[in-house]
């Protein structure tokens, strides 16, 4: 792994106890002949259809229903941007929450003199 990943810490917060059952419950509704079949990992029909979904021969989107909650610490904004491009991820990023700015910033000329900025900057909270 590159040096840029050494500072990343990942905590698994929650995950489903039986992801196969979640996948099967969604997958079986696609075929009437399987709709009545209960999840049994030893049932060849169940294993076959889940494998087909894994190999994208059947509906692979059922895997998007598996929710695994993780916390990344020490991740760069670049890595966060790369992760958020992927389908199926939901994010809450603390670094993007409103924070007081305690350093000098440059405001573009056209923004600073716009009527919208003037209305905001004249409010007592700024």
Protein described:
The model has no long low-confidence stretch (mean pLDDT 80). Helix 1 crosses helix 2. The chain is elongated. It has one domain. It starts with 8 loop residues before the first strand and ends in a 5-residue tail after the last helix. The chain has a two-stranded antiparallel ribbon. Helices cover 31% and strands 9% of the residues. The protein has 126 residues and is of the alpha+beta class. It is built from five helices and two strands.
- How many independent structural domains? 1
Strand content range: 5-15%
Main sheet?
A: 2 strands, antiparallel
Strand neighbour order, sheet with most strands: 1-2
* Total strands: 2
Mean pLDDT across all residues, rounded?
80
Helix content: 25-40%
Order of helices and strands: EHHEHHH
Features:
single chain; 126 residues; alpha+beta; two-stranded antiparallel sheet; 5 helices; 9% strand; elongated
Task: Please sum up the structure shown.
The chain is an alpha+beta fold and 126 residues long.
Q: What topology does this entry show?
A:
Elements: E1 9-14, H1 19-27, H2 44-54, E2 69-73, H3 77-84, H4 109-112, H5 115-121
Antiparallel strand pairs: 1-2
């Amino acid at each position: 792994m590159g040096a840029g990943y050494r500072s990343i810490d990942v905590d698994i917060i929650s995950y489903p106890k039986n992801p196969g059952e979640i996948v099967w419950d969604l997958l079986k509704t696609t075929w009437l002949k399987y709709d009545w079949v209960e999840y049994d990992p030893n049932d060849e029909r169940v294993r076959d259809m889940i494998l087909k979904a894994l190999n994208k021969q059947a509906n692979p989107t059922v895997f998007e229903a598996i929710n695994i909650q993780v916390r990344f610490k020490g991740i760069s904004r670049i890595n966060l941007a790369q992760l958020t491009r992927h389908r199926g991820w939901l994010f809450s990023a603390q670094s993007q929450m409103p924070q007081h700015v305690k350093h000098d910033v440059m405001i573009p000329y056209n923004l600073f003199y716009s009527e919208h900025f003037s209305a905001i900057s004249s409010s007592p909270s700024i």
